[in-house]
Every structure is written in structure tokens, then in C-alpha cells.
Hints:
Order of helices and strands: EHEHHEHHEHEHHEHEHH
Mean pLDDT: 95
Oligomer: single chain
CATH topology of the largest domain: Rossmann fold
Amino acid sequence: MHIGLIGGIGVAASVVYYQRLVAAMEAKGASLRMTLSHGDIQTLIANNLADLRQPQAEIFAQQVGELKAAGAQVAALTSLGAHYCFAELEALSPLPLVSGVAPLDSYFVSQGLRRVGLLGTRVVMRTRLYGQLARTQAVALDDDIEALAQSYQEVAVAGHCTPSQRQRFLDAGRRMVEEQGAEAVVLAGTDLNLAFDGQDPGYRVIDALDVHVDVLARLAAGKKSLAEVSGKG
Length: 233
């Protein structure tokens, strides 16, 4: 199946999606058919902070239309923060959408996790992944959300992570484990690999991007049906 990605939100996350999708497909002995539409991260940030869902959904819907014209059969957003307008986009989208949020609750349960800590955008942390974790409790550093979210936004825009930003995220994860009982820290921002890749923070880390990529790869390789992955996000 031909996968369509809305990328550029940010660029580093789009690159990692591409790299990991290729690796996942190679591991399955299948070839990848993928098209990426580049989005504007600054527009997304402005609309997200103002909670302007419909205008952003209309922008994404136009991109999905471009992906469909290029042959894509499904579309996905390469940003969990961008899922704030997923329902609005789903109503407009000319292609079925594959949510990066919907599979997470079942994945955490399959891993035996009862409580997870979240790092990501303001909305992702404040809403505890848009309230979509029904069987897993999510925690976040409510007293530090604004500073963490601002650091994450800066990393996503720049496409790289400074040592001080990396330490902020690593320390935040440790606090959620030690003070809030998180059994794992979830990178619920798809650019956070820039901070955590190659690091050993001393606690379990789950990259939500990997869960999404696994779903997309199984779909692309014909190992999973569209009906199984097109639930609400």
C-alpha cells in the first residue's frame, strides 16, 4: 500500500519516519511506496497555540489531496502535536487517516504498563495524549509543562537539540519516574529522538513514533488491513 506522510512538522521527525519506515519494510522483505508532503511548522505552531483546529485541518486536507493525487492510499501526520485537529481533518480528508495516537493505549497495555510519563507539546502533555489513554494512566510535570513545551518547540523548529535542552528532557523523564511513579517515559513528540537517541537515561523510554511506524509498515506490507488502523484518532 502506498503511504502518504504529511511532514515538515518538523523536518527532523519526517526524516526519522522515512528512515524507520524503510528499515521496517526491509525487515519484512517488502519495498516501501511512500510520498511526503512538506508542511509549514510555523503555521502549525501558531494554529496549535491558538487552538485553531478547522483552519489547520483545511491546510492538512489540501496536503492529503496532493498525496492522493500522487497515488497515496492512506495518510498520516508525522507529528503527535498536529493530532490536535485530527477529528476535523478526518471529516475533510480525501484519504483514510492512520492515527499516531490511537494505537498507543493498546501498545502500553501489551507492554504491561499501567502508568507512563509524557513529554511533548503543551497540548499533548496537558490533555494526557488527548484523553485517549483509557487503560493506561498518563502523568506529566504540570509545574514545568510550559518550559518543557517551549524547549520542545525550539528543538522541533531547529531540527537539532543542544546539550542543555537534552539534559532538561532527561531530567524531566527522571522526575516522572522517581516522583510520579511512571514505569516508562513516552516520547510523545516525534522530534524528541533528537534528545534521546544514543542516550541511557536510566529508565525505560518508549518512542511513540516507533509505534506509529510499526502500524504504517504493517499496513504498507499488507500485514494489517485498512479497517484495523482507520479508527478514530
